[in-house]
Amino acid sequence: MFGSNRDYDRLSARNVELARMVKEKSEEVQKLQELRNQDLHNNTILINENTKLIQIIDRVEALASQNRYNNEKVILDKIKEVIQSRKTK
């Protein structure tokens, strides 16, 4: 099939080299997958925080539009109350 031991040695060395390359690429893929998973986790946290902030803004807007007495101090006190309730959660 092949002419000499030199050919076998050369092919064997190439196989070892290729196996090493496959292992390195596999490790790279695994690291990239871990980074992707971390990004997904971080994005989920950010989405949850944004949702909470939107809810707070909606509550503030509702309080501001319910200013039946035209008293800005009441609205300010309510905004402070909303912020304080958010901080305690």
Description:
- This protein has about 90 residues and is mainly α.
- The protein has one domain (about 5-85).
- The protein contains two helices and no strands.
- Helix 1 packs antiparallel against helix 2 (about 70-85).
- The model has no long low-confidence stretch (mean pLDDT about 85).
**Helical segment count:** 2
* Average pLDDT for all residues: 86
Number of structurally distinct domains = 1
Classification by helices and strands: mainly alpha
Oligomeric assembly: single chain
Largest sheet, strands/sense/barrel: none
Describe the global form.
Answer: rod-shaped
Radius of gyration computed on alpha carbons = 31 Å
Q: Report the count of strand segments.
A: 0
Order of helices and strands: HH
DSSP strand content:
under 5%
Q: Unreliable runs, pLDDT <50, ≥5 residues? A: none
Q: State the end-to-end distance.
A: 75 Å
Helix content: over 70%
Topology readout:
Layout: H1 5-65, H2 72-87
Helix pairs in contact: 1-2
Summarize the structure.
The chain is built from two helices and no strands.
Features:
89 residues; 2 helices; 87% helix; rod-shaped
